[in-house]
Amino acid sequence: MIASFETTCCIVGGGPAGMMLGYMLARAGVPVTVLEKHKDFNRDFRGDTVHPSTMEVIYQLGLLEEFLKLPHQELASIGGKIGDFAFRAVDFSHLPVRNRFVALMPQWDLLNFVAGRARVFPNFRLCMEHEVTRLLEEQGKIAGVEARTPEGNVEIRAKLVIGCDGRHSTTRQAAGLEVQEFGVPIDVLWFRLQRNRNDPEQSLGNINYGKILILINRGDYYQAGLIIAKGSFERIQGRGLDAFQRDIAEIAPYLKDRVPGLQVWDQIKLLSVQINRLRRWHRPGLLCIGDAAHAMSPAGGVGINLAVQDAVATANLLAGPLREGNVTEAHLAQIERRRTFPTHVIQALQVRAHNGMAKIFANPGPAKAPWQLKLALRVPGIRRLVGRILGMGVRPESVRL
Ligand SMILES: Cc1cc2nc3c(=O)[nH]c(=O)nc-3n(C[C@H](O)[C@H](O)[C@H](O)COP(=O)(O)OP(=O)(O)OC[C@H]3O[C@@H](n4cnc5c(N)ncnc54)[C@H](O)[C@@H]3O)c2cc1C
Fold first, then answer.
1. 316 and 206: one domain?
2. Same domain assignment for residues 48 and 170
3. pTM here?
4. Segment 287-343, tens digit of pLDDT
5. Does residue 273 line the site of ligand 1, with CB under 6 A?
6. Burial class (CB in 10 A: 0-12, 13-18, 19+), 102
7. Cα of 143 to ligand 1 centre, how many Å?
8. Does 169 fall in a domain?
9. 109-140, pLDDT tens digit by residue?
10. In 70-205, which ranges are continuous DSSP H helix?
11. What range defines the domain where residue 237 resides?
12. Which residue, by CA, sits nearest to atom 27 of ligand 1?
């Protein structure tokens, strides 16, 4: 027999979009249930960046002081290295917010933090190990979901279902929402390398020999990401692990004594990158936001920020109608309209960045910084402009609850 319960708003997925939305709706007095398919938030592939505009939201929610007590590193500017040419390309120091830096922290810390604050509200419920498998539909309207749990299947009836279940969204697929795909020429190999005390802090773009290596400092290890041409992992594996180790040491020679730590291919995860978006984000009784509405590439590390901004806009516009029990499709369409422009702008920039990466793969020799880059870096205010776009996004949202 299927167990069942009711809620006002059922959020599918406990990522940045789902947890932030769950917290904000609960804080505004809406009975809300978040369903997350995993048993915890401790996974490695999620991205580690908390941007200035996300921290501004956390400040507006009155949580910033506590949040900043979590272990993190602060990046006030971001640079990279092409061949021997090291440069700073992004400056956050002028942004009109309290925290003019990107906080780097494992995403599970951010999600556990938000979950902990949300649990304070009696109208908030977080159900881990609840994997939504299908939508319930009544008279053409989504009326809830069915979820698989270790104890059996559960039916959750809701006035509104919000799909925050990421780039492989079950909700958007089950709802038949049409997806527009944009070709992506990259994938990411994700692995850990031991970090020594005297190693550089981070290298958010180390480009050489036709490869791009990202190294995020997590204390005693680097979370490393090697950006590869889409579909090339099998070929890389075919060359053997020794060749892979040599490739990494070639780009970052100081890691030469650490790469032998990569002993088996299981230590190296392939993360498939996509950019796509829904032509329509909603149906009666259902809305999708975050990656479920628009899958983001890791380029620029802005997907978490965009997901949180979607959540803030959604909570601002829906808390009242949800409390009053009169959510209409017009409300859902309003959210889509508000968030479409920021999504399109950022995805267009990511597509451009991918095209640049594809050119890098085409040159397996020592990399030379293009003259256009050197020239652009001389334009006054360019680093601040890039900092503004990366740090704040387009049309940043403020908490209005
Ligand atoms: C390789 C890679 C690296 C990235 N690095 C960064 C970065 O450094 N910074 C950055 O800002 N962005 C990064 N991004 C993009 C970023 O991960 C996403 O844009 C962001 O996580 C979107 O948040 P979300 O809450 O919408 O979805 P997600 O973070 O994908 O969360 C979705 C949640 O839903 C759950 N779920 C899925 N299906 C179901 C189901 N059927 N039932 C219940 N739960 C379900 C999942 O377990 C997950 O917890 C990266 C992306 C990739 C691919």
1. no
2. yes
3. 0.94
4. 999 999 999 998 888 999 999 999 999 999 999 999 999 999 999 999 999 999 999
5. yes
6. buried
7. 25
8. yes
9. 999 999 999 999 999 999 999 999 999 999 99
10. 107-118, 170-174
11. 186-272
12. 166
